[in-house]
Amino acid sequence: MAAEAKGKRRRKKGMENDNLTGYLFILPFLIGFFALTVFPVAMSLYLSFTNYDMLGTPRWIGLDNYERMLMDDTKFIKSIKVTLFYVFTAVPFRLVFALAIALLLARLVVLKGVYRTLLYLPSVIGGSVAVSVMWRQLFGNEGALNSILAKLGLPTVSWLGDPSYAIWTLILLYGWQFGSSMLIFLAGLKNIPASYYEAAEVDGAGPWRRFINITIPLLTPIILFNVVMQTIQGFMAFTPSYIIFEDGRPLNSTLLYVLYMFQRAFTFFDMGYASAMAWLLLLVIGLFTALIFKSSSYWVHYESEGER
Questions:
Q1: Cis peptide upstream of residue 250 (ω within 30 degrees of 0)
Q2: Which of 36, 76, 201, 228 has the fewest CB atoms within 10 Å around its CB?
Q3: What is the mean pLDDT of the chain?
Q4: What pTM did the predictor assign?
Q5: So what's the pLDDT on residue 209?
Q6: pLDDT tens digits for 145-162?
């Protein structure tokens, strides 16, 4: 009995040592998680109820930031309108374009890897500062696009100075970075059995009917994933609008929500107000994500109910 009890104590001590080793291995992650994620999130929630200019001490004001945001700030309302237009235009544009390119790549027989790599490059460099500067030069009054129009004898356009066109330059840039969505669509297309298309072709279904009745229904889980991810990314768009238009010019037509939040925090030093804007953005993104998932029961199709 004594030997058995001694063995149990030895095993228990060994398990405790293993647990301690495991905790030591994950300690760097835990430190980073709490110091760089949990604490900043909790701090921003607290600051959203204060008046804080980053120089003095935060002063508690309750819901005043949220009330001022929703009732008195016309620029805030403008940023919401611009962002909603941007999201509901740029996201479908990117996804439709990505799906079209994926359908073309799925038919390629030779050099598929080369084409995939080349088409994915815009997503690798993404909406970086360098790309935004390039885009600004491309659409500038003396840029390449206007130079081509002038040589063709067509009137030039103030792409960046006209409120009617400015937001569309950002939408085109967002659509240009279609690589990640394209690869996800391409993976989904590869998983559709060729026998489905062969059977439909034997039954006399043309390309369009095969696309509508086979490709789209079987791709709906992939479409759902891309819609959710791209919608979240669209709401958080910032770098291109900041680099190309700086402050939302012309006439606040490119004042995206995150750009205005950045201005409130680092131009006007109103960190409490910016923190309230950040939490409202979180709620809006969560609401739209929940609505997308709620609607998915009506248009997303799975191979079996058990996979839901």
A1: yes
A2: 36
A3: 87
A4: 0.87
A5: 92
A6: 889 988 888 888 899 999
Burial of 234 (0-12, 13-18, 19+ CB in 10 A): buried
275 with 69: CB under 8 angstroms?
Answer: no
Amino acid at 16: E
Tokens of 16: 């405790």
Q: Are 192 and 215 in contact (CB under 8 A)?
A: yes
Pick the closest to residue 166 from 241, 97, 260, 77 (CA basis): 241
Check if the beta carbon of residue 151 is closer than 8 Å to that of residue 166: no
Q: For 105-151, how does the pLDDT look when each residue is reduced to its tens digit (9 = 90+)? A: 888 767 777 777 777 777 766 657 888 888 888 898 888 888 998 88
Hey, what are 29's tokens? 């992650």
**SS3 annotation, the chain:** CHHHHHHHHHHHHHHHHHHHHHHHHHHHHHHHHHHHHHHHHHHHHHHCCEECCCCCCCEECCCHHHHHHHHCCHHHHHHHHHHHHHHHHHHHHHHHHHHHHHHHHHHCCCCHHHHHHHHHHHHHHCCCHHHHHHHHHHCCCCCHHHHHHHHCCCCCCCCCCCHHHHHHHHHHHHHHCCHHHHHHHHHHHHCCCHHHHHHHHHCCCCHHHHHHHHHHHHHHHHHHHHHHHHHHHHHCCCHHHHHHHCCCCCCCCCCCHHHHHHHHHHCCCCHHHHHHHHHHHHHHHHHHHHHHHHHHHHHCCCCCHHHC
Six-digit token string for 213: 């009745």
Neighbours of 147 (CB within 10 A): 12
Q: Which of 90-99, 120-129, 278-287 has the lowest mean pLDDT?
A: 120-129
